[in-house]
Amino acid sequence: MRHSCLLQPEVTMKEQGGLQIRSAEECAWDQLSLGEVMLRFDPGEDRITRTRHFRVWEGGGEYNVARGLRRCFGMRTSLVTALADNPVGRLLEDMMLQGGVDLSHLRWLPYDGVGEASRNGVYFLERGYGNRPAMGMMDRGHTPISQMKPGEVDWDRIFGKEGVRWFHTGGIMCALSLSATEVVREAMTSARRHGVVISYDCNYRPSLWKRRGGRLGAAAVNRELAPLVDVLLGHDGDLAREIGASSQGPPWHDEESYAAMAKGITEDFPNIKVIATTARKATSANRNHWGAFGWSEGEVYRGMHFEDLEIFDRVGGGDSFAAGVFYGLLSGRGMQWSLDCGVAHGALAMTTPGDNSMFTLAEVEHAMSRNGAGVQR
Question: What 3-state DSSP class applies to 212?
């Protein structure tokens, strides 16, 4: 164990965007994620049903954020997850080690030889092109992290003794099982006790919530957890009590409508200090309008906007957006800079294959400056 930064009796906090953020000097980790990591099979330009070759990547909504913060922005990040101890699990471990995310909180479950008790999740994804949309197929039943139960992770040691500045999880983790939802609640409760900023990405996935009430079931869980959240990634449809227009698809706002949305959310949940929402309109599978809105301390922010952004692989764009926003807030850059950083990082991440960012902070700042896409020599 290399954790040398212990929580001091008097915790130093710095305010940023209405958030009280713990001092980096007192914490082992700038950011910690809780979520599942799967092996992604990418058929490249082929279709799943016709290809004979796949390229593989590691990916998971919550993990992708920690990896982006580590590899692009140089922050100290860690991950709580679980894997079955077999060659696929060890492949995922090797990929995550290359991503630089600390794995000291990775839990290994024994493998029974056939995957009857627990198995590592995999998914297949076609990128799409033109009028053919991207298409994914999940194979993630009874994975180790879906079987995790409250009491199995010493959250007070992680958030207290080791020290964490920012904790991130979300609706994908909650959707895995009833016990996974309770693990999220347990982790968030402990994080709040220790003054850790808590972010939650609603990240609705219809396939995961099919057995638990669909859109309304997901929103009910989100509402239960919202009183523990400081930073919300999502919109009013993710918290709705009934199906309405905002529940039907991705949001598209102007400043006035976003202000009204944020007002409604924060009146119900005054503990939420920051809201960030991507705004995407797909004109085709590989051309999207891409931007974002944010809210902090009663003010609405409109992020930089990319018109007809060319997309190579859209998966992970939202997670890279989140990583950019979190980096900005953790480093004291202000809400506008943080939002622009998230939009630019997400835009870059969608120009390369795989779930994760392959970029540097300098490249993100170049994209933020809109200095063009000419050859860098």
Answer: helix
Tell me what pLDDT residue 247 has. Answer: 55
User: Which residue is associated with the tokens 């529940």?
Assistant: 247
Distance of CA 353 to the CA centre of its chain: 18
Q: Would you place residue 11 in the very low, low, confident or very high pLDDT band (cuts 50, 70, 90)?
A: low
**91-95, 112-116, 251-255, range with greatest mean pLDDT:** 91-95
What span, in angstroms and rounded, lies between the C-alpha atoms of 315 and 213?
25
Q: Which two tokens stand for residue 370?
A: 């809109």
Give the C-alpha distances (Å, rounded to integers) separating 151 from 187, 198, 307: 10, 20, 47
Contact 218, 224 (CB under 8 A): no
Question: pLDDT tens digits, residue range 154-206?
Answer: 999 999 999 999 999 999 999 999 999 999 999 999 999 999 999 999 999 99
Using alpha carbons, select from 67, 68, 59 the residue that is nearest to residue 37: 59
Residue 99: partners with Cβ closer than 8 Å, 6 or more residues away: 58, 67, 70, 71, 356
- Kindly provide the residue ranges of all beta strands, DSSP E only, lying in 128-240, ordered along the sequence: 135-139, 164-170, 197-201, 231-233
Is the alpha carbon torsion for 329, 335, 337, 341 positive or negative? positive
Are residues 60 and 318 in contact, defined by beta-carbon separation less than 8 angstroms? Answer: no
Long-range contacts of 208-215 (CB under 8 A, 24+ apart): 208/138, 208/172, 208/175, 208/176, 209/175, 212/175, 215/243, 215/247
Angle at 353 between CA 58 and CA 203, to 5 degrees: 60
Measure the CA–CA gap between 182 and 174, rounded to whole angstroms: 8
Q: How deeply is 359 buried, as exposed, middle or buried, from its count of CB atoms within 10 A (0-12, 13-18, 19+)?
A: buried
Query: What is the reported pTM?
Result: 0.93
DSSP state of 131: T
- Return all residues near 80 (Cβ < 8 A) that are at least 6 apart: 32, 33, 34, 105, 106, 107, 153, 158, 187
Structure token digits, residue 168 = 């991130």
